[in-house]
């Protein structure tokens, strides 16, 4: 289903204020639905992100045999043995949904076909197919992109190295390994988000970890384990909260609190970087909820300076470079971001989307194959219409820029924001921003 294209315009805001909530974490929401659908019996999910990407995963779980009902803020998922779906599973814009479900379908030893929107069809799927093929999966009709079909196959455990720090690939292997014969061992040289490991344990699966300072981490998982239904609560999404925090720190006079945000250190690289730039960001009321650390994030307008963002930090802030680049325009001096090759294959080529958009807003920006450099002048002109290229994070980043730039910023398409943060406009407006749909 194609989403209707509708733009939006963001004008300079007065000070932003208030206590707001970020929507449920997208990574955790996809996983909660998939794992609950694999567990035989009833699980309950609260705090689920009710955004297009996650609802696509819910629809896929129904097509695979789960019974899913929504009762107010609670989602009840009755998992059952998976069956081959009658039609292709359609994932819209959702890379996490499609890649994790490919692994789970392989592990369930059923066949299924997969498809997505124009952006998802352009993204690489070989990174998931390759390890699954090593395990014995038959992948049909594929040139490494969607649409593609997986055949029901018997899988064997493997020893593999995660060549890229991709949690989607790691998760797909772990889910396939559940249905493989033997114990699969994954070597993770650089750590990436670990929600799958944490949540599989919550669903009663045994995983073992070995850490080595020099070589990274090794995860082992024995095949043939089943999942036990449980209750999952999704905390606020730190990637979505980053847009609100960024808006506050670049808009003079602002002070906001984003409540109940996940602060798992494999996700908080953006906050570390913003603090290094001089941002006044405090994690208050830290607590643990459902095995994940959570806090309220207080952010105040700050005078910022440019920093070097080390390549090793990329996995912990991989989705936050567009909004960091916007903040960097309001800092004084150069912010240099390296190790960004994965940004080329996100919902859009984010290095290109950011560079073209910032340059149109009068910002001094340069890029290379895997780096971006923003030479901030403490302010930005704005005054441009930005092409968002089917990318929700590009759309939100430039609306945030418009809140603090001299001239308004317009985006060509705000529809994709609904894939991860449907209440973005309302939340920004509640804080005092000046954004209008067009
Ligand atoms: C995600 C992993 C990351 C991230 C994506 C969500 C996940 O992708 O960019 O938004 O939930 O596992 P990669 O695995 O491609 O790094």
Describe the structure.
- This protein is of the alpha/beta class and 438 residues long.
- It has helices at 26-38, 52-63, 95-107, 118-121, 126-134, 167-177, 195-202, 238-250, 269-276, 321-329, 350-360, 392-404, 424-431; strands at 8-11, 17-21, 41-46, 67-71, 74-79, 89-90, 112-115, 138-140, 148-151, 155-156, 159-161, 180-181, 183-188, 207-212, 216-222, 231-233, 255-262, 280-289, 292-300, 308-309, 332-338, 364-368, 371-377, 382-386, 407-411, 434-437.
- Helix 1 packs parallel to helix 3 and helix 3 (95-107) runs parallel beside helix 6 (167-177).
- It has 2 domains: 8-24 and 235-437, UDP-n-acetylglucosamine1-carboxyvinyl-transferase, Chain; 26-233, UDP-n-acetylglucosamine1-carboxyvinyl-transferase, Chain (Alpha-beta prism).
- Strand 22 (364-368) and strand 23 form a beta hairpin.
- The radius of gyration is 21 Å and the shape is globular.
- A 4-stranded mixed beta sheet has the order 24-25-1-26.
- It contains 13 helices and 26 strands.
- Helices cover 30% and strands 30% of the residues.
Q: Which terms summarize this structure?
A:
alpha/beta; UDP-n-acetylglucosamine1-carboxyvinyl-transferase, Chain; binds shikimate-3-phosphate; 2 domains; 438 residues; globular
